[in-house]
Amino acid sequence: MADRKLAAHLLRRATFGPTAAEVDAAAARDYRDVVGALVRPAVAESAAPLPAYADDPLLGPVANKTREQRAAAQQKARTQLGELTRAWVARMVTADHGLAEKLVFFWHGHWATGAQKVVSARLMRAQLEKFRMFGSGDFAVLARQMVRDAALVYWLDGQRNTAKAPNENLARELMELFTLGVGAYTEDDVKAGAKALTGWTLDRARGTAVFLPRRHATGRTTILGRSGVHDADSFVGILMEQRAHPTFLAGRFWLRFGSGEPLPSSTRDSLVAAYGSGRDVNALLTALLTDDAFAASAGQLVKSPVEWAVGAVRQLGVPPAEKTLTSVLNAARAMGQLPLRPPSVGGWPTGAAWLTTSSLQARMRGAAAIAAALPEPTADSLRSGSAASTVDTLGRMLAVDEWTPRTRKALTEVAKKPQRLVTLALISPEYAVS
What we know:
Strand content: under 5%
Shape: globular
Distance between the termini: 22 Å
């Protein structure tokens, strides 16, 4: 049987806001069994799939469209992206497999691709489904999918990368941000890597990236000491052989699932060993979530705006209706994080970056909007006991291990006003961290 605080810690990190019932169920089981069930669910996901898009509103030559037609196409593209974003947030709220959905969100931040440039729900959805399909197995398979992902290729100007005029953006970010880290490659490696990726371009009609042999550089190059005639797949293979790669990826997972503090060397070695020659993401995650350093990291991560807002909706039982989803997205946007729109290829920040004065004001508005949508059964459960027991009940709902005396005093003073109580709890320091 797992310790309840440890079970709550695990679920706060591995899912989007565990409910009291989910924490109770996890606490009643062996901890490693809970981790195993999170990493490899035994039953199929029941949440609704993301909407599919058969067309691209911006398809076709702009020159052949009137100003009104271009404006209508742009509006339709924006509408589709808004629909996709709301549908994904709704899935975060309702998904049975919380870790699987959180892993999709992790990869979205890792391979950060922005709809503000791609402007295609069809391409952004296809990328999310790649994360869902390939994101928990062999990382090399995912990486090979991503270097030919239409949204990423367009985001990093891969369609401009030709034998005659190589564009280095994708090659550079593939090494620096996605696989190896800063300092693990040279400028010559970037130039050679860019040549290996030449020939891939965007086919909006099919919604995919396509390879055009006539645009591909065929000469011999040397990438990270490996000489030969390279293409996208062999480039990825070379990256997977580098000693820097498993350590880099372990660090990225630790930063998002473990702690903002440096990765302990013993934990790093454990994660790298689990990742192994098969580059098994699930094995790496299992090692991370069962490591002693993870158990000791409670309260060391600041929740991102999406984690905070989605978690609050889940834990309070607020149905993900259109109005609620709009409130969640408005709050997350005002706090600096809107799904499908990372600020750069570097993704979103972590830690104290989410605790600015402006983000706190946005958090207060978001908390009030979520509290206003509180379902009656939740409100009733917060009216039924004494002030002290009500504050404890809310703590269980929100998976807060314990309130500080200062927070408890503030909550006790408004305990008979459910909406005000929930608003204050959601902006408390205890709820801001996981």
